[in-house]
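Below is how a single chain appears once it has passed through the pipeline. First comes the sequence as given, then the structure the pipeline wrote out for it. We keep one example in the README because the format questions we get most often are answered faster by looking than by reading.
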Amino acid sequence: HDARQSVSVRAAAGHQDGYLKAIDITWDDAPTAQGPTGTAIRTGEPYIARFILTDPRFAPWRNQALDRGYASSIALPIRVNDHVIAALNVYSSAADAFDTLETELLEELASDLGFGIQVLRLSRENQITRAELEQERDISPIGISVLTAEGKLRYVNARASEMMGLPVAQIIGRTSDAPEWKITDFEGHPVPLERLPFARAA
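Resulting structure:
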């Protein structure tokens, strides 16, 4: 976040008529942080502006909100791993629109949003980790091959291709025990099939 701890919009829906571009919200200790959104992010608790017309903490945005017909507002913290990362803000054209039941339902929605964000982040991290591992596998100085359950080679890295003496395209699909491999030990003696690692792992 920036030095002012500004709040930026990530998604919006419904009637706003430029409202979100016209207002300035932060979550520090400034007057622009004392409304529903800043309070929810800073304290981790929901905040309801039941009457925008008279709520003193809504003063910085009151005229903009009233011009668009907003009469009440609620903001709820969105958490990921127990840390508040955002807020869900809902406006209503009715004053005092958010009763206990409505608030509980919106709290559940905010919780679901936090869980969804967490899942997406973990998925992205896993994708990055997998890509890094695949890159390390491709450039490894050790010959690496991957077999299917039927014993056919479905992947070999550059080093394995070099050791086998064939281009990768000519290796993929062959069986691991194909006689043309002529696998030998360091002294040049043939290695029995039962002693090969892939045979032991099968």
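The chain has seven helices and five strands.

See the next section for the split statistics.
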